[in-house]
Amino acid sequence: MRRFSANYIYTVSGKPIRNGIVGIDDEGTVVELIDPQDDIVELAGTEFHNGIIVPGFVNAHCHTELSYMKGRLTPNTGLAGFVDQIRKIREEDEIVESLSVRNALDELHREGIVAVADICNSYLSFGPKLVSPIRFVNFVELFGLLPEKAENIIEYAREVKALAELKLQDTIAITPHAPYSLSQNLWEIVAREIELNSIASIHFAESRQEFEFSTSRSGPLAQYYSRYGLPVDAGPKGHPVEIVKRYLPKKSTILFIHNTFLTSQQAEELANHFTVAVFVLCPASNLFIENSLPDIQMLRKMGVTMAIGTDSLASAPSLSMLHQMKIIGQRFPDIPFDEILRWATLNGAEALGFSEDFGSIEPGKKPGLNLITPFDFNHSKLLPASKIKRLA
Ligand SMILES: [Zn+2]
Question: What is the pTM of this model?
Answer without folding.
Answer: 0.95
